[in-house]
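Lecture 7 notes: from sequence to structure.
We start with the chain below.
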Amino acid sequence: MNLTESFQEFINSVGLLHFSIGNAIMMAIGCLLIYLGIKKKYEPLLLIPIGFGAILTNIPVIGMMKPGGFIYIIYNFGITNGLFPLLIFLGVGALTDFGPLLANPKTALLGAAAQAGIFVTLIGALLLGFDIREAGTIGIIGGADGPTTIYVASKLADHLMGAVAIAAYSYMALVPIIQPPVMRLLTTKKEREIKMEQLKEVSRLTKILFPIGTTLLCALFVPSATPLIGMLMFGNLLREAGVVERLAHTAQNELINIVTIFLGLCVGAKMDAVEFLTAKTIGILILGLIAFMIGTATGVLLGKLMCYLSKGKINPLIGAAGVSAVPMAARVAEIEGQKANPANHLLMHAMGPNVSGVIGSAIAAGVILALVG
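Predicted structure tokens for the same chain:
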């Protein structure tokens, strides 16, 4: 190769010559996500890596998502095969106390009701022309569970990964903005003022048996959800066993932190301008918002029914925590309850449906995978 050809090759490698308006828009979106993570503290552990991944993937010429690229290698190692979401679930399980759910098992119904948004949105996506695999991927956004959304997308519609992941994590971050209007619309001030009785103590044996029993039940009835539920429950068993603190600590800290970094970068790297800036992406974001609002509404409505049947012993606000945005949705229920009655403390009561929502979204994902996978 002579000097002229070498110079021409160098000129062609200059990214500025290949820079497009689409690249600029996606980099701006990446910067916005980083801003929301840092300034507003909206899911910073994920929005910051996702935002930076979006910037990296929209740098022309480099091609980090092309075969052999840095992020391409990570993506195929942990996203394509669903490994990273499963490891996240392991860490989430190790961080989760299922005590509030076990102390008041009927609140699991609220977590189940909140998954209605998933299936309503799946039907809506089909009516809008998405194919069945895409519709299943879009619908799972309604569970407000980022790792579950990524896991389903990796199995059914990888090309939608960027859009559905951004929708899931964005709406998780915006729980304090999206949920309160729906909660106030569907409840009366008198209902929001309801104080709930203190939860009973749950024995250590019960907490140890719960993850084992839940895994076995899931394997028997919804085997396609077993990878997600199994890792969630294994992490929880490490927590509750009390004799493997090192393993529990690693799952809660080093492991989940490392995986979160790679997961965020890989999701952001799917926000390429050519694939992301489409009418389909806008449709997905709208459907995801609708799914989240429906999930909140159905949880609150079942909460109202349980309030009536219990003669006012259950505050309907805790039904909104049935979406699996842990623990933010439970905190929103606490805040809304205290606005109506400053002496109200709903946090631990709301954690029951909140953690059951995590289980519910994983089971819903398994059902979708079994039906359309």
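Points to note: Residues 15-372 form a domain with the Na+/H+ antiporter like fold fold (CATH 1.20.1530). The radius of gyration is 22 Å.
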